[in-house]
Amino acid sequence: MAEQAMHWYLELQEHDVSEATRAAWMNWRQAHPLHERAWQRAEVFTQRLSEVRSPGQRALAQATLRPTLSRRAAMKQLSVLLAAGAGAWSLKDTTLLQDMTADYHTRIGEQRRIGLPDNTQVQLNTDSAINVVFERESHRVKLLRGEMLITRDNIADGRLLSIDTADGRLEATLARFSVRQRAGFTQVSVYQGTLVISPPLQRRAPVALKAGEQVSFNDQGLMLRQTVALTAPAWTQGMLVAQGLRLADFLEDVSRYRRGHLACDPAIADIRVSGTFPLANTERIILAVADTLQLDVQQFTRYWVTLKPRMA
């Protein structure tokens, strides 16, 4: 949100700012209370930026204000300073702090493969972060945010691996499974082997999950249990697969792999999308879907894209 706020600040510094850009900026501010808070902090921050006196930040502040600095670099540097401002942002809850303290993380649109000391293989999806603790008595991975695929088929000592999420703990020995931290719950899919789920506030015994099952759970217990294909998720191959998915939900998935705002007009939110799309270029995905469904792409800036019904 800090980076988005600085994006809008820089947009509004341009000469001859269009009414469409101003409208998009106001829409962003009104979309969520934290957006408005981010904007207010950005205004205060930018007013004081030229007066930064901290020896550690003076060079960065001066570099940020240089007219020769690229727009992208300026936005990144401004957002870092803004997010790190004196106690204003509760840094312990921000993506910035997670990335600074996590053992491994990925940026938006990035994926990463990691080999752990016991031969466990971890693949991180876009915008994800984990911490890893390997001690004599325990092997643990904590999912701070995002999504990962874990493969344990040739581990060194057969020791149990614990996975901690915001909603509880998973335990597995030999298994292949994905874990995604969502808003208010965790989603787990098992492709090989078995694992056990232990929500902290659930009074019943831990839940065993076998290959071909997918579970959504929160700290109270299981919310949904259903079947899932035994093949690894499409994102591990750099693909996004949709099978009759609502357009609004499809765009929400695509937005995980790109910066900015991506949505559709409520009038077309329930149109169904099917297909297989390469994640390497989200612009192509948007244009392909719009062309297939005969929709218009309304783009105020590259960070604010909305699909609309096509005008006759």
TrEMBL record:
Residue ranges constituting the FecR protein domain according to the UniProt record: 103-194
Alphabetized GO MF terms: sigma factor antagonist activity
InterPro entries hit by this protein: FecR (IPR006860), FecR_N (IPR032623), Ferrdict_sens_TM (IPR012373)
Ranges for domain FecR N-terminal: 3-43
The protein's name in its UniProt record: DUF4880 domain-containing protein
